[in-house]
Structure formats: C-alpha cells, structure tokens
Design a protein that fits this description.
Layout lengths: L10 H5 L4 H15 L5 H7 L4 H8 L7 H15 L5 H18 L1 H50 L6 H55 L10 H13 L3 H14 L2 H14 L3 H11 L2 H12 L5 H11 L7 H8 L8 H11 L5 H11 L10 H9 L8 H9 L3 H12 L8 H13 L3 H12 L4 H13 L3 H13 L15 H13 L3
Length: 516
C-alpha cells in the first residue's frame, strides 16, 4: 500500500492568495523581510533566486521552502546583529507546517517525520553521552571499591572500629556499583531503542521521499496547475517581462511532468512564442530517459524549426558512453523507422573533429544492433567528409576495418552517387581519383575489398565508372582485378545507358588478360 495520501491543496487558490494559512505565512515573512531595508529584486540577486519567486513567497502566493525561510532569518540576524528569538523561529516553523497541512498533506507528513527523525537523533546523542558518563562513574566507583578491598586485606587481623567502618564503606560502594550497572543496562537499552526508532524513521522518510519524487518528479508543493502557469506566462508577455517568462519556461521544461511539457509545446506553437527554444531546453535539461520518451512529440511535427532545434540539442548530448542508448531509444518501436535516430546521429557525427572519432562514435551508436536498413543522413554526412577526405572514403574504410561493413557500404553508396550527367560531375570524378591516390596500400586494399562485396551492384558499377571517368587507369585495373579474383566482375552493369565506354573497355581488357 502506498505510504502517502493522494490529495493535494489547490495550487490555483494559492496562486491567487486565497489560502489563509499561506497568506499568513507570507505576511510574517514580508514583515521579517522589511527589516532588511532592501528591494525584493536586490534580495533575489543576493540569494540567487528568481525575483518572481521571492515575490510569491512574500505575498503568500507560494509556500516558501524551509531553506528560503532559514536564509531570510540568517540575513535579518546578520543585518540586525542579534539573533532572532527562539519563539519567533518556532512560530515561523509552525506557520509553514500549518500551510503545508492545508495545501499538501503529503509534504506535511514528510516534514513532521523529518522533525521526529531530528528529535530521535538528538535522543540517541543524549543516550550516548549518558552511557559515557555512567561508564566513567562506574569505573571510578569500581576503583574505589578495589581500594577499600585492599585496605580491608591489610587490616584483616584488626578487629577494631576502623575495619568495621571500611567494611561498611565497601558494602555501600558495591551497592552503588550494582545500581550504576543497572542504570548502564537501562541506558544501553534506551540507546538501542533510540537507534531502532531512528532507523525506522529514516527508512520511512526515504520511502516517502522516493514515492513523492516518482509521483511529482522535480516538482514541489508550490507548483501551480498548468492553466494557471499559462496565464502567468501570458501576463509576463503582456507586461513585457520577457526574461522572467523565459526563465519560467526553462524551469518548466525540466521540472514539470512530460504530459505538461507536451501540452506547453503545443501551446507555444499555437501562440508562436519560440517553441523551438522550449523544445531545445527539454532536450538539454531533462534526464536522458525523459528526452527519449518525449521524442515522438517532436517527431510528429514533421519538418520544422522545432524539430531542428530538438535534434541539435539531443545531438549535443551524444557521447561514446550513451550513443547506443540514444540511437536505440530514438528508433520507432512500432514502424522500426530509424528516421529520428538517423537525424540525431548525423548531427552528432557532424560535431566530431576527425575521421577516427566519427568511426568510433558510429560504431558505439550501432553496437549490438542488426545492420541498419537505412541511415541516409549519417551516410551523407560521412560521405561529404572533410577537406582531407572529400568523399568520406577514409571513414568508410575505417568503418569496414572496425567491422561495420553495413554502414561503410552506405557511405560508399552516398559517395558514389548517381552516374554523372552534369558538367560539374567530371570535376568530382577527378577529385575522387586524387583522394584514392593519397591512400596507403592497406587502405586501398580495404576499400576495394569493400566495394567488391557490395550488395548493391548499381553502386559497385557507379564507383568503378567514376574511377574510369577520372582516368585513374592503374587504380581502375586494380579494382577490376579484385572483382575478377572474387568472381564479382560479372556483376557490373555494363548495359546501363550511363555506363561509360572507358569502363566497358577496361572490363574487356581485364577479361582478355585473364583469358576470358
């Protein structure tokens, strides 16, 4: 059975200042605050809080947290140079508890248990000190009893009054020692009871905190209903208090339940109030599991600035440690679509600084997965490469050497593209040949082996044709020879209308040299 009640006070009434207990707490705090002689904005800056939050605490439109009250008391004491009376502190505490009792029974019970736990700790500490004192007194009395026993031994032949007095003193000391031992046993029992009670209280407090955190993640009793929150944001806009509105929306992005966040995103899109910033805040600030769970809300928006901002913010969080979690979490479990996972991984790959880092990141993201059906954006991003790897051939080779032949094939397909039909493509062919000439022997062997075993024969043909158009005869002959050695030369589509005469002649020459 749940530890906590499911009821909660009306946040809307609190926000309007209609809850007497909360208003009374605010009045006391405001009276205390006025003794500082500064503005609320200045105080908010001093204690690193939003000025709107300070205002709501002092006007009784939110229940002030205990930390806020403690800090205010400390500031007033420092300003006045004298401590606040104990009665005043206790009265403040009592007013806050009364406000919690009315508005949030769950938090009220938790606060009460925390107070009881603090008292239990004090009781335990007193029991420890009492046991230490009793042990010290017992040691002293036992020493006195031993001294008297020694004196009696020395006087055992003396039947005088002195021996009688010592014997009486010894008996009295022994009785005191026995009483002290009984007191010590009682004190140890009390300490055990205090320890047990404290452990039970700690366990109860932890259970309640855990349940409340699951039910109201990252929220507190002062949060307001979503409709009231929207009205507050709208009022801030009307007052042109844009920084406060932005801060409140950012706080809502990470603190409110996901269903509220989804509703806020829809509302912001309807009002045209920079929903992309809100979506990016959700991606930046929420726990990763929340970000992945929220992805469908953004994906269904289709192509939009909101989606672009979201993808960019999620990609910024991708690391080697979480790449697999993010990539798998973004795949559509129903349709098996990898569209969103492809978008985010492509953006993340675009942020790395070298081909080696790209290979490692892609390998990490796809670790333990079956060959992806399509990763067009990742492949295109890698195929565009960098200044030193214009077609992504180095990263494709690196992926193949890392065992990701599936992704390497996608990069080769993107790099090969379609058969040239524009004047500018001839320049790309020359660049492709130049890139290959800069490869080492091992890299060329790995690349040609990859091309040889491509499942897509159209891509295989296009890649070979581009080498032919680049007039890279030695490289072309080496590729065709590799294809022939593995019985794959016949797979080239020489009947395609786009296939160049150069490639057809080169294939005939290789066949002739092999007696075919």
């Amino acid at each position: 059975m749940t530890e906590v009640a499911r009821t909660q006070g009306s946040s809307a009434e609190i926000e309007r200042g209609e809850v007497a207990e909360v208003a009374a707490l605010g009045n006391v705090l405001k009276g205390l605050f006025t003794r500082l002689g500064i503005s609320q904005s200045q105080y908010a800056y001093r204690v690193h809080l939003d000025k709107s939050a300070v205002s709501r605490y002092l006007t009784g439109r939110r229940i002030a947290p205990q930390d806020f009250i403690d800090r205010l008391v400390q500031e007033v004491e420092d300003h006045l140079g004298t401590p606040l009376q104990l009665e005043a502190r206790q009265a403040l505490r009592a007013r806050r508890l009364e406000a919690l009792r009315v508005c949030d029974p769950d938090e009220f019970r938790l606060e009460g248990l925390r107070d009881e736990l603090a008292r239990s700790r004090r009781d335990t500490e007193r029991a420890h000190r009492n046991i230490e004192a009793l042990n010290a007194l017992l040691d002293r009395k036992e020493a006195e009893a031993r001294d008297v026993a020694d004196d009696l031994t020395r006087l055992r032949l003396d039947w005088g009054a002195e021996r009688t007095a010592l014997a009486g003193a010894r008996e009295d000391l022994l009785r005191q020692v026995e009483r002290l031992r009984e007191d010590l046993r009682d004190a140890e029992h009390l300490r055990e009871e205090a320890d047990r009670h404290g452990a039970e209280l700690r366990a109860t407090v932890l259970r309640l905190e855990e349940e409340l955190s699951r039910r109201r993640p990252a929220t507190g009793p002062e949060d307001v209903p979503l409709d009231v929150f929207k009205e507050r944001i709208r009022w801030m806009w009307e007052q042109e208090d844009l920084p406060d509105a932005a801060r409140s929306l950012t706080e809502a992005a990470w603190s409110r339940p996901l269903e509220d966040v989804a509703e806020l995103l829809r509302w912001l899109r309807e009002t045209g109030a920079a929903p992309e910033t809100f979506a990016a805040d959700v991606a930046r600030l929420r726990p990763l599991e929340d970000v992945l769970a929220f992805s469908p809300e953004v994906t269904r928006l289709g192509r939009s600035r909101v989606r672009e901002a979201w993808v960019s913010a999620v990609a910024a969080r991708v690391s080697l440690r979480n790449a697999a979690v993010v990539h798998q979490g973004l795949r559509d479990a129903v349709t098996r679509s990898e569209t969103e996972a492809d978008r985010v991984l492509a953006e993340a790959v675009g942020r790395v600084r070298s081909n080696a880092e790209a290979v490692v990141l892609v390998s990490a993201a796809l670790a333990g997965t079956a060959p992806p059906a399509r990763l067009p954006r990742v492949a295109e991003k890698l195929a565009r490469g960098s200044r030193l790897d214009l077609f992504g051939l180095r990263v494709a080779t690196g992926l193949a050497q890392a065992g990701r032949f599936d992704v390497a094939a996608l990069v080769i397909a993107a790099a090969a593209g379609h058969a040239p039909d524009r004047e500018g493509d001839e320049i790309d062919d020359v660049r492709l040949g130049r890139c290959l000439r800069e490869f080492g022997e091992a890299q060329i062997a790995a690349l040609f082996d990859l091309v040889t075993w491509l499942d897509d024969t159209a891509v295989m043909t296009t890649f070979a044709d581009r080498l032919a158009r680049a007039q890279e005869q030695p490289l072309l002959e080496r590729l065709l020879t590799t294809l022939a050695e593995h019985g794959r030369l016949e797979l080239l589509d020489l009947f395609d209308v786009h296939t160049s005469g150069r490639l057809k002649r080169a294939v005939r020459d290789v066949r002739a040299s092999r007696g075919q």
